[in-house]
Design a protein that fits this description.
Blueprint lengths: L6 H18 L11 H8 L3 H14 L2 E4 L3 E4 L2 H16 L3 H23 L2 H18 L4 H18 L3 H13 L1 H11 L3 H19 L3 H40 L1
Antiparallel strand pairs: 1-2
Length: 253
């Protein structure tokens, strides 16, 4: 009979397994771990070993435990990226273009890899997320559109099976969430452009489902270019509106 692993090493193994789930995105920020008894049974370890493993991840800042609330996954892997960049965006509007340029590279590569690597389970998840997006786009619920749009792009990123792409995508969407919301709200008032937006997401979805990497890459990049152009147009329209109001005020005086 082989010797049993020392408790400390067993706790390290369990901590590594939980850390892997956080990295791959199967455990996301805000998720609460299953009840201790259930999780210990799933992992095939004792509850003391599980507690020690959890404490190791708490000390790393990946988990937080509160009495009566259970153990929750933190946003540490994203927060250190998100917080400073959100502050920078407020003071330096010229960063918006750089962020969109980075998003175009990231999402093009994510779609390319997703089309190459997506498993059946990834395609099934993408189908569900796309169906929600399509239903949201056909409604008048802008909040639902924003949430579904973000979820779709994140599902594509996770289907790429690259840990850094998955986490960078989630972080980037948090940084630019306000701009995504504003842009979608404005596009919703322009039916022809709204239809273009719907067609772009459909093209990304179909290319990944059909395992066509180059087409998926191009569809994703074209989509972000459309977003960039839309934001530029909206900013220009706003400048014209303010200019017209100033002229109106001057004429009244």
């Amino acid at each position: 009979m082989p010797p049993l692993l020392p408790a400390a090493r067993l706790a390290d193994t369990v901590a590594s397994e939980l850390e892997k789930r956080i990295l791959e995105g199967s455990l996301k920020p805000g998720d609460v771990l299953p009840a201790e008894r259930d999780l210990a049974l799933e992992l095939g370890v004792s509850r003391p070993s599980l507690r020690e493993a959890i404490q190791k991840l708490v000390s790393k800042g990946l988990l937080t435990t509160r009495h009566g609330c259970g153990t929750t996954v933190t946003d540490r892997l994203e927060a250190h990226f998100v917080d400073p960049w959100q502050d920078m965006l407020k003071g330096h509007p010229m960063l918006h273009r750089d962020l969109l340029e980075f998003r175009q590279m990231l999402e093009g590569q994510a779609a390319h890899l997703a089309a190459e690597r997506a498993l059946d389970v990834d395609i099934q998840r993408l189908d569900v997320v796309y169906a929600v997006l399509e239903a949201a786009y056909d409604s008048n619920d802008i909040r639902a559109c924003i949430d579904a749009d973000v979820a779709f792009h994140q599902a594509v990123a996770e289907a790429a099976h690259n840990v850094l792409i998955g986490h960078l995508s989630a972080s980037l969407m948090r940084v630019i969430h306000g701009h995504v919301a504003t842009n979608l709200a404005q596009l919703h008032t322009q039916p022809p452009r709204w239809d273009q937006l719907k067609a772009q997401h459909h093209a990304i979805w179909q290319a990944i489902r059909n395992h066509q990497p180059q087409m998926a890459d191009q569809a994703a990049r074209s989509h972000i270019e459309f977003v960039r152009q839309s934001m530029d147009d909206n900013a220009q329209d706003e400048q014209r509106r303010l200019s017209a109001l100033r002229r109106l005020g001057d004429a009244a005086r």
